Each structure stands twice: as structure tokens, then as C-alpha cells.
């Protein structure tokens, strides 16, 4: 291990961490021949010496997306073969999932998740993690994955899942890859960047050896100190690459003669020195990459005795190695590449075809699942046998779907579709026409989460189907297209697709297809907050769904109908339906419906004011659903939303996905960023809030779902209001209000913000002497209050609280005494357990009573607001409360210094309304006292010209024309000294 002391020490530290329950991922990066395998072998040796459990597998270069979970299966196969007790100790559900990858477990088969998008794959990942955790009960587990630059996407997804999910497991994952293989669009590149940026993994870079290190290595190889000229020649030619230097010596070169021009030439010298039979086996092994003894014999057609002798020769020459499972492979990937690249075209095709046929015989006699099927498809395609490649690709895609490798299945089906036009009698060979293969590919992409691609494939399939001749088939495809478009955020197009689907089936049709479509319609109306229409559609669908008898469809209908009933006032019936949906989904083992039902029940309870109950449902749902899948993530986001409203900001943050989680489609991305944006807004990180909210708004642009538009406008409008940009805040509220029909709770919340914006506008206009503008703002505030009042209905407690808040702001906008209205709103929010609006209203009430001369009550209210904001971690509100107390020269509550420190993590968090910086605030204070630019400069130790620039910026931010108007605004908002 010459020259690798620091790297070995880092791996030792990671292994020690794993032994005490601090798991991690480590990536070892380096060019070919630099020593990645050697350092992994050393890590494996030290793992065994320390009593740890070693699992290892390598990725196979068969092309992107063909052999799902190849290194994971290779690592776990010995456990299944030996009947490891850790497998038996797992719950039955986990063993069923693992049986997909390791059929030897003898568990019953389970089909693909009907509404996947990652749900079933998430359960598989959770089962794998549970196994790794169980294996590490007594000793650390080290999972080594070599050659990640060839990893399939399912393996990459699993590594990403591990990085985000490991917590206290005794686990160390070590992966190796070649950086020179990662071209700009290589799929591993973004994975590595996300994991390293998010702190989920670290990288160890292996550099070439220095001259001194190479000299030490040569001394070890030769058994004597090398001569300086030999060191110089080898160092110059190898550039410090250990493998190259070793191969040069192994080829009989002592540095005095002519060196081969490339490393490949040096390696070929080793290959060509072997007997012809050994070279023939090496060519076969180069095509097959990893083969067992029987496969080598069958595919080569060589006499078994000659095969044994040839393998013995290749192994003794340090070109081929055999692992514990009986598989042969090249000692180094470069050796295989050299042999494979040297194959003649006809030789290349013949070898791949021989391997494919041997694997087909084995598949027919022994089975073998997704991995063997994918390998057969690869070898037939490499052989140029298009008819066989077509059949094998279709078969391999079916096998990939069975192990939730949806991306790989989609890739295989894409290739099969390409071959249809090139193969005679293709549809007969494939057992399916182009429309059917397009449909299968679309479903694979839908379950993968690649929604744009799925929509395009469904549309292509529909173009090939005669809807008049096959109405039922076309209707189902339109139904899937609607689901895809709805999840993608294209609500209008989705609704049109669903209308077309239902128009193809008779109104009196009693079939599972029509029942499913009617359920989709109920759900689509519910998602668009057209709750009364959703109830009508759901009631109409109920007899049909019951008659059709599909449990999952019934759970889906109860889910959508339950939400709509709660929104229209039938609270008890809605809760009962959602509870029934949960039980049905659990009995049908439908992960998707189970997660959705928990999420919807949790949200519905929160919206009617039963927030603690809703939070308990979210927690129960997280424990019952696979945390890795999309539905489990939705439950976590719902829990975070409730916790934010309950003022438990730190807890909410723990439920949010990592920053590097970039989901594939619109609504999930929008939901994540709404929660992140809300948290940043509460904490006063306005720059982060803006970035999150802008992305959330863009993702939900075409969704036509108030559950996204309402919160986006509420949070972005509040951000703009804080910055003093009232015109833009007003515009965003009015724009969203037009899309909010039906969602009474979010209508009320948005209207309350609209009223507050107008209250600020009215105050500003009065300060500037613009009576007409103040009157207009007051009228707009009154309209917002009326909107909030009209929204009061079925979900009374929450709706009434927002209506009371809007009425209080309308009173402020009129210039009336608003104290009673503010107290009424506070009294509405307190029993709901929502401390942030209570504290914000208390601070406004403090300002009102201070103007009336009641300093004691003002101090008491502001201190309560400060304490509540500090407890929540709502830094911006805490800063506002403290600023008010200081300006009004009211006593700070005990411990306020510490609260102030927590509320102002940096200088920018002291910024005041209108986006003023702390420096601009100082300038404005002096300006309000009548100071000239020269006086401002002298007192703040700045040039007069600099003071003038500050004043100009302040006038622009306050939207005023003169220093007098700026002074008026400063006095009105308490920005001048009292």
C-alpha cells in the first residue's frame, strides 16, 4: 500500500465509525490502474480482521439500464445460497420483497405495483436496508461496489436511497469509479454531485505515485533497490500509474529497451504469451465479462479438460481471477478491454451469440430472472441478431418490471420498439404489436416518474389504436394519460383526456375499466377543489365500483370521496371513508393507495382544525408506508405542513427531504418547495424563501389546484409585503384569488393576507398625505374581508379564524380602532394551536394600544409575541417584536438578549420592512431627525457622497419623492427614534 497511507487511514476511520453505529458512504475515485481495486482489497482484508461482515459486487459494462441491481445481487447471492440467519430474521414482507432479487428465498411471487412511481421500488430498498441493518447487529457490515461508472440506474437509485436513509446502522458502503469515464452527461455524475454536496457521501481521490513512491514499489516488486535509470524510464512512461509500471516489468522490459507506445500494447504482450486455447477462452470471457465454469465450457465448445488447463494458465499468469462464487473474470478491467477491442467483427458477433444461446438454455432449464434475461438481450444485440434481440428485450423488460426496475424496463422496451421496423414478422416474434409495446413502455416510464416521456408514449400508442374498434382499450389508455398529465401539472389536458376516456364507454357499462375511470374523475375534481362536483361524481361511481369488485379502485374512490365530503361539511362520514380506504389499501397491499389515504386523512383533519389528530395520522402513515417511496415522502411533507402551522419549526425541518432531492415531476417538486419556502419565510431567510417559492410556482403553473396556488401566493405575497413591494404583493394575491374557487380554507388565508397588504398600503398613503389612495386601499381591504367571510362554511374553525384576521386588517385599513377585531382574531387562532398568527396579531395589537397610550399592555403583548417567536425559531417575527420594544422604549422581557441573538443569526436578519439594510435604517433614522447628508456622513463616518447614495436608495425603496415623505414613513413605521 505504498503512497496510500492517508487513504487507508480515512477508510479505517470510516470502518471504525460504522462499528459504533455511524454509517457512511465513501467513493474511491481514480484512473485505470491507479490502485482502486488494491485499496478495496486492503479495506476488505481489514474488515475481516476486525471481525466485520464483507459483501462485495461489481458493476458490469452491458450498457446503460440493462442489468438491474447487478452488484447488489452479486453481493447478496452468497447469503441466499448459504441460508444466512439474517434473512430468516427479517419480517415476511421484507423477505417477499427480497425474493424479487434472490428467488432462492422461496417466498411467494408478488407482482409489480399497479400505481408505482417508485412505491414498490421503495419497499424493496427498505427491505435491503433492513437486511443490511440486521447483518450489522453484532459486527459492522462493509458493502463494496466496484466500477460504479458502469452501474445501472436501479443500483444508483439504491445508493442514493442509502445516503439519505442510513442513520445508526453499522454499515460502510465503499464504491469505486473512474473519473475519466464520466463524460459530461454520464448518469453517475449528478448522483455523485448531489450526494457529496448534501453530505451523504465523501470522496477519496487516488493520485498517481510520486517518483519516490514508484521507486519503493519497484523495490518491493524486484526484491532489490532499482537503478535510477530504470526508475526514471518507468516513471516517465507510466506517469506514476502503478499498473502500467508493473505490466511493463511483467512483460520483460527492464527499462533499457524500447517501450510499448501505450499501456494497451504492454498488456497485449501478456495476453499473446499465453497458449492458443487460453487466448480463445480470454476472448470469450472478454465478451461475457463474468462467467462460471459451466458457462465457459458450453459457450466455448472446447473440451472440458482443455478449458481447465487454459483457465489454470490464465490464472497463474495473473490475468484471470476466480471469486468465491465460482465466477471467472479479468484481474483488471483494462485487460478485458484490450482483449475485447482486439476482436474481429465476425469473431465479436460469434462469441456474443454463443454466450446468449448458452444463457438461454440455462434460463429455460433453471430460470434466472431479470439479470439473466437482460444479459441475453445484451448479447444478442451485441451479436447483431436482431430477431433474437427483439424477443429477448421484450422478455427482459417483463422481468425488469417484476423487480421494480422501471427505468431499465423502459430502456429495453425502447430498444424493442426500434427493432420492430427492422425485423420481419416482428410483432409475431415479440408477441405484441407496436401499440402494446408503446403502452408497456409508457407504464414503465410512468412508474419510474419520467412523466413527460410517459405522456408522449401514451399519445403515440393512442395514435395507433382505432378507438371505434377497440373503445375499451383506448379508454384505459386515455385514463393513464390523464393520470400522467395530472401528476405532471397539466390539469386541463388531463381533464380532456379523461372526458375522452369516459365518452368511449356506454353510460350503463358495468366494468372494472369504467369503475376505474369514474374513480379518476372523482379524484381529479377533488384535486381541483371542486368538492361538490366530486361528491356527486363519487356517489354516482360508488355502485359501479362495488359491482366491479376491484379493491384498489374502491380504496381510491373512498379516498377521493372522503376528502370531498369533509370539505363540504360531512366531516364524520368523510373521516370514516378515509379510514376505510386505509384498511382496504392495507389489505390489498397497495402501497400507493395506503400512502395517499394517510396523507389525505391527515390533511383533511388539519384543515378542519383537528391538527394534532392530523399529525398523529401522518406519523402513523410514515410508519406504515415505505419511507423511500414517493407516497411516503408525501406523508412526510404533510406532517411538515402541520408542524409548521403548529409552530414546531425544527421538527418540521426533520421531515423535509434533503436539499439535493430533485424529484422528477411537477406537483411533488412544488409541494417540497412550498414547505421549504414557508420554513425559510418563518425564519427570515428571505433569499432562500424567494428561490424556493419561485420554483414551486413554476412547477404548479398549469396544475389548476388551489392547494398549490393558494399557499404559493400567500407565502410569496407575504415576502413581497415584508419587502415593501405592495404593488406586486397585491397583484399576486389577486391573480391567485381567481383560481381558488372551492378551497374555502385557503381562500380565507389568502384573503387575510390581501387585507393586510391593503392595510399597509392605506397606512403608507396616509403617511404621504394621499387620502384618495388610502380610501382605495381601505375599500380593497374590505372586499378581501368580505371574501374571507363568504368562505366561512363547512370547515368553520379555521375559516372563521382567517375571516376574523381579515376583518381586523380591514379595520386597520379604514383607520378605525382595530383593537377589538384583533383580539377576536387572536381568540380564534389560540384554540387551533397556531402560535405564529397569534404572535403576529399580538404585535400589531401592541402597536394599537400603544397609540392609545396603554404602554403596560403594549409591553405585555409585544413581550408575549417575542417569547413565542423565539420559542418557535421564527427569527423574523422575533426581530420585529424586539425592534418594536426598543423603538417604543418598552422593557425587554427577561432573557431577551439571548432571544435577540437567536432571532438575528446575521446582519441581514435585522433588515426592516421595505427591504432596508441595517445601514440604510441608520441613515433613515437620522434623515427623519432632519440631518443633512453632510451630518449623516460625519456621524456615520462616511463620505457625504456615500450618504447621498444611501438616501437615494432609501427614497426608491420607500417609493417616495422627498426626504420629508421618507421621514413621514419612518415615523409611521417606528423606524425613527421615539
Characterise the protein shown here.
The protein has 978 residues and is mainly α. Among the domains are: 5-205, Rossmann fold; 211-259, no CATH class; 272-430, Arc Repressor Mutant, subunit A (Orthogonal Bundle), CATH 1.10.10; 659-741; 920-972, Winged helix-like DNA-binding domain superfamily/Winged helix DNA-binding domain (Arc Repressor Mutant, subunit A), CATH 1.10.10.10. It contains 49 helices and 8 strands. The strands form 2 sheets. It has a 5-stranded parallel β-sheet, with helices on both faces. A 3-stranded antiparallel β-sheet has the order 6-8-7. Strand 3 (141-146), helix 7 and strand 4 (171-177) form a beta-alpha-beta unit. Helix 43 (855-872) packs across helix 45 and helix 46 crosses helix 49. The N and C termini lie far apart (73 Å).
- Total beta strands: 8
Superfamily (CATH H level) name of the domain at 5-205: P-loop containing nucleotide triphosphate hydrolases
Q: Give the strand line-up of the largest sheet.
A: 2-3-4-1-5
Give Rg in angstroms.
34 Å
The portion of residues forming beta strands comes to under 5%
Low-confidence stretches: 111-118, 255-259, 626-630, 660-665, 898-911
- CATH structural class of the domain at 5-205: Alpha Beta
Quote the distance from N terminus to C terminus. Answer: 73 Å
Amino acid at each position: 500500500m505504498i503512497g496510500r497511507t492517508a487513504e487507508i487511514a480515512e477508510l479505517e476511520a470510516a470502518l471504525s465509525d460504522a462499528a459504533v453505529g455511524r454509517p457512511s458512504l465513501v467513493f474511491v475515485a481514480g484512473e485505470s490502474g491507479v490502485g482502486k481495486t488494491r485499496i478495496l482489497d486492503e479495506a476488505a482484508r481489514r474488515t475481516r480482521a476486525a471481525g466485520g461482515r464483507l459483501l462485495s459486487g461489481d458493476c458490469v459494462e452491458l450498457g446503460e439500464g440493462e442489468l438491474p441491481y447487478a452488484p447488489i445481487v452479486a453481493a447478496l447471492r452468497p447469503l441466499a445460497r448459504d441460508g444466512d440467519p439474517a434473512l430468516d430474521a427479517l419480517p415476511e414482507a421484507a423477505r417477499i420483497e427480497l425474493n424479487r432479487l434472490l428467488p432462492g428465498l422461496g417466498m411467494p411471487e408478488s407482482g409489480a405495483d399497479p400505481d408505482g412511481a417508485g412505491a414498490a421500488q421503495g419497499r424493496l430498498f427498505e427491505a435491503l436496508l433492513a437486511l443490511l441493518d440486521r447483518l450489522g447487529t453484532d459486527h459492522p457490515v462493509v458493502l463494496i461496489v466496484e466500477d460504479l461508472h458502469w452501474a445501472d440506474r436501479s443500483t444508483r437509485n439504491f445508493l442514493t436511497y442509502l445516503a439519505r436513509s442510513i442513520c445508526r446502522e453499522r454499515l460502510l458502503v465503499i464504491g469505486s469509479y473512474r473519473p475519466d469515464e464520466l463524460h459530461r452527461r454520464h448518469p453517475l455524475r449528478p448522483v455523485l454531485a448531489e450526494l457529496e454536496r448534501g453530505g451523504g457521501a465523501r470522496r477519496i481521490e487516488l493520485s498517481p505515485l510520486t517518483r519516490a513512491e514508484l521507486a519503493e514499489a519497484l523495490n518491493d516488486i524486484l526484491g532489490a533497490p532499482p537503478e535510477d535509470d530504470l526508475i526514471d524510464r518507468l516513471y516517465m512512461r507510466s506517469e506514476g500509474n502503478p499498473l502500467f509500471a508493473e505490466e511493463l516489468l511483467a512483460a520483460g522490459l527492464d527499462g533499457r529497451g524500447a517501450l510499448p507506445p501505450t499501456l494497451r500494447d504492454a498488456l497485449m504482450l501478456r495476453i499473446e504469451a499465453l497458449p492458443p486455447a487460453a487466448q480463445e477462452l480470454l476472448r470469450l470471457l472478454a465478451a461475457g465479462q463474468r462467467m462460471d465454469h459451466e458457462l465457459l465450457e458450453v459457450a466455448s465448445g472446447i473440451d472440458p479438460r482443455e478449458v481447465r488447463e487454459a483457465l489454470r494458465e490464465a490464472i497463474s499468469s495473473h490475468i484471470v481471477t476466480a471469486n468465491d462464487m465460482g465466477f471467472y473474470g479479468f484481474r483488471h478491467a483494462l485487460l478485458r478491454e484490450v482483449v475485447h477491442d482486439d476482436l474481429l467483427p465476425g469473431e465479436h458477433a460469434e462469441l456474443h451469440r454463443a454466450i446468449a444461446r448458452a444463457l438461454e438454455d440455462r434460463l429455460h432449464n433453471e430460470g434466472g430472472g431479470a439479470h439473466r434475461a437482460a444479459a441475453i438481450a445484451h448479447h444478442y444485440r451485441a451479436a447483431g441478431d436482431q430477431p433474437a434481440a427483439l424477443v429477448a428485450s421484450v422478455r427482459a423488460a417483463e422481468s425488469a418490471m417484476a423487480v421494480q426496475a422501471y427505468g431499465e424496463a423502459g430502456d429495453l422496451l425502447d430498444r424493442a420498439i426500434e427493432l420492430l421496423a427492422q425485423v420481419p414478422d416482428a410483432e409475431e416474434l415479440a408477441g405484441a404489436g407496436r401499440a402494446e409495446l408503446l403502452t408497456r413502455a409508457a407504464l414503465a416510464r410512468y412508474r419510474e416518474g419520467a412523466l413527460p416521456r410517459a405522456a408522449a408514449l401514451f399519445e403515440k400508442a393512442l395514435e395507433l389504436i382505432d378507438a371505434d374498434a377497440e373503445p375499451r382499450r383506448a379508454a384505459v389508455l386515455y385514463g393513464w394519460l390523464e393520470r400522467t398529465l395530472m401528476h405532471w401539472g397539466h390539469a386541463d389536458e388531463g381533464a380532456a383526456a379523461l372526458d375522452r376516456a369516459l365518452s368511449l364507454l356506454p353510460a350503463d357499462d358495468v366494468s372494472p375499466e369504467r369503475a376505474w375511470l369514474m374513480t379518476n374523475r372523482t379524484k381529479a375534481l377533488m384535486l381541483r377543489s371542486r368538492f361538490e362536483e366530486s361528491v356527486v361524481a363519487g356517489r354516482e361511481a360508488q355502485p359501479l365500483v362495488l359491482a366491479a369488485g376491484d379493491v384498489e379502485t374502491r380504496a381510491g374512490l373512498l379516498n377521493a370521496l372522503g376528502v370531498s365530503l369533509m370539505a363540504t361539511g360531512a366531516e364524520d362520514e368523510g373521516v370514516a371513508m378515509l379510514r376505510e380506504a386505509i384498511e382496504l389499501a392495507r389489505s390489498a397491499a397497495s402501497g400507493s393507495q395506503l400512502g395517499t389515504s394517510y396523507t389525505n386523512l391527515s390533511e383533511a383533519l388539519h384543515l378542519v382544525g383537528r391538527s394534532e389528530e392530523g399529525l398523529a395520522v401522518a406519523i402513523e402513515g410514515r410508519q406504515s408506508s415505505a419511507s423511500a417511496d414517493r407516497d411516503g415522502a408525501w406523508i412526510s411533507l404533510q406532517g411538515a405542513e402541520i408542524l409548521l402551522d403548529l409552530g414546531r419549526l425544527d421538527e418540521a425541518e426533520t421531515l423535509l427531504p434533503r436539499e439535493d432531492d430533485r424529484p422528477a415531476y411537477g406537483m411533488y417538486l412544488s409541494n417540497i418547495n412550498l414547505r421549504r419556502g414557508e420554513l425559510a419565510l418563518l425564519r427570515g431567510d428571505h433569499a432562500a424563501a424567494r428561490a424556493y417559492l419561485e420554483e414551486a410556482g413554476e412547477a404548479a403553473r398549469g396544475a389548476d389546484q388551489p392547494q398549490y396556488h393558494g399557499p404559493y401566493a400567500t407565502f410569496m405575497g407575504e415576502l413581497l409585503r415584508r419587502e415593501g413591494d405592495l404593488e406586486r404583493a397585491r397583484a399576486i394575491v389577486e391573480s391567485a384569488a381567481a383560481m381558488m374557487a372551492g378551497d374555502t380554507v385557503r381562500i380565507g388565508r389568502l384573503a387575510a393576507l390581501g387585507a393586510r397588504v391593503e392595510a399597509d398600503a392605506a397606512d403608507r398613503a396616509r403617511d404621504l398625505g394621499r387620502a384618495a389612495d388610502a380610501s382605495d386601499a381601505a375599500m380593497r381591504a374590505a372586499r378581501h374581508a368580505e371574501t374571507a367571510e363568504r368562505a366561512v362554511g363547512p370547515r368553520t374553525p379555521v375559516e372563521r379564524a382567517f375571516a376574523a384576521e381579515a376583518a381586523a386588517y380591514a379595520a386597520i385599513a379604514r383607520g378605525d380602532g382595530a383593537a377589538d377585531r384583533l383580539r377576536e382574531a387572536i381568540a380564534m387562532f389560540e384554540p387551533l394551536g397556531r402560535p405564529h398568527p397569534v404572535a403576529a396579531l399580538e404585535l400589531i395589537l401592541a402597536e394599537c394600544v400603544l397609540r392609545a397610550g396603554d404602554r403596560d399592555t403594549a409591553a405585555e403583548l409585544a413581550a408575549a409575541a417575542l417569547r413565542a417567536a423565539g420559542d418557535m425559531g421564527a427569527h423574523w417575527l422575533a426581530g420585529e417584536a424586539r425592534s418594536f420594544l426598543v423603538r417604543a422604549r418598552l422593557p425587554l422581557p427577561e432573557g431577551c438578549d439571548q432571544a435577540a441573538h437567536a432571532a438575528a443569526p446575521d446582519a441581514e436578519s435585522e433588515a426592516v420592512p421595505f427591504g432596508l439594510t441595517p445601514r440604510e435604517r441608520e441613515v433613515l433614522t437620522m434623515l427623519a431627525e432632519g440631518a443633512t447628508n453632510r451630518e449623516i456622513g460625519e456621524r456615520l463616518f462616511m463620505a457625504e457622497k456615500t450618504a447621498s447614495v444611501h438616501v437615494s436608495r432609501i427614497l426608491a425603496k420607500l417609493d417616495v419623492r422627498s426626504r420629508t415623505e421618507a421621514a413621514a414613513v419612518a415615523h409611521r413605521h417606528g423606524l425613527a427614534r421615539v
